[in-house]
């Protein structure tokens, strides 16, 4: 096996001991607006919209429109201050939800953090780091760079949907992916190759450090994100799934936004150098995708290539992603409307998440927009309303949505059948002609893989139960818990709001709910029964607490409960 590349690091004493420079105090500067320091222990300083040049009335209009279309969390930050939270945020702000492909932007940031620390070079072939050799895998795979993985230009065969947690080994499945194009020559949205990014980082660290533990120490902890507040899906052997399924809360998405707002620096601590951070948002003109950077979408492009899926091919649209939004905006894109938006020219970040069963789809060509990730009517009207809230720097209004160039690619059954008859889906569970060598649905090399399931279940139950403790603290403190209120958003110490016995009930109900789901019970019956058992723990706020539990479980059932 190829020896791992040795990296010699020169680390400053400050970085070695993890010292963070204290954030600056808030102040009103020359523009007359309030400016806040970086978040402290994950908590943003607050300001009114008017103190930072925004309109409360217009933001409420945007929040109402978004809520009517399935948005649960709507959070606005400007000048480092938290200035607005939507009507449901008091209930959902601490619930770890499936971030879907928002995860990709977090993955890209973690790779840049690894380069900042000298662990990897994203322009080196991954074969310089991983233990696999040309005798083990297709030699072309070892020439792919981490940058090409982050650009979606690995050239590996595209697969959009696969049974992630059923996969015995996501790394081996990625290596088994057929090579359709030479690396670095063609942009095509893909999922499975991203499993190699955590593997590269773990291998470069020596192979005995878990990627998620490393991310917590090197990125989440400096942002104020505690380990018991998130989880990230794993395959059955325990590898982190790179493309999606980080479960974190809207509050944590805002903290990722703070890192983006600081262009790699937060609280005076440089996690990613500015020049390196700029790689995240460098358009990929050389491979025909001017509206994409490193796993991050860019509104600056005059055109964009859509995401082909199993139901429609990709197409190129000759317009920006969101015409009504500032052109320098860039953002993560999680399926069903899960985003952290960053607008450098306005020093502004926006977080949006949706209900588990909602799709903020465009009312025109709904099937096409969902399939191809065409940014259409909802996004256009949503950003018209958000942009109208900017008082100090009026934004141009392109007018109501019109669809001059809709995606008219016909539904392509061949793309769907290719995933079945050619072995894509079967390969994911290690059967069929494209299955990894030496692997079966049970595991690889004659081993039974289950450790990843066990670890994931522990992490998920810990994170969900801890988040419900935080949520109950918010509710009992009077934070808004329904559409009728728009009050303050306050992170409180978890303390012992439920008590050991109450927390034990929550953990048992989560575990029991998973068992019921695995046994084939109707998900709605499972949610209803378990909600009834935990609601009394909320006392006078039992209804709200039961709702929070239901939202957490609604995402959990099809995710870690299938493990």
Notes on the protein architecture:
This is Beta-lactamase-related domain-containing protein. Residues 1-27 form the signal peptide. Residues 99-232 form the Beta-lactamase-related domain. Keywords: Signal. 34% of the residues lie in helices and 9% in strands. With 563 residues, the protein is an alpha+beta fold. It has a six-stranded antiparallel β-sheet, with helices on both faces. Strand 16 and strand 17 form a beta hairpin. It is globular.
Task: Please render the helix and strand layout as text.
Layout: H1 13-17, E1 27-28, E2 34-35, H2 56-68, E3 71-78, E4 81-85, H3 89-92, E5 97-98, H4 102-116, H5 146-151, H6 170-175, H7 196-204, H8 211-223, E6 231-232, E7 246-248, H9 250-261, E8 265-266, E9 269-270, H10 274-277, E10 297-298, E11 304-305, E12 316-317, E13 330-331, E14 339-343, E15 348-354, H11 366-372, H12 377-388, H13 413-421, H14 424-428, E16 439-440, E17 443-444, H15 451-476, H16 499-518, H17 523-534, H18 542-556
Antiparallel strand pairs: 1-2, 3-4, 3-15, 5-7, 6-7, 8-9, 10-13, 11-12, 13-14, 14-15, 16-17
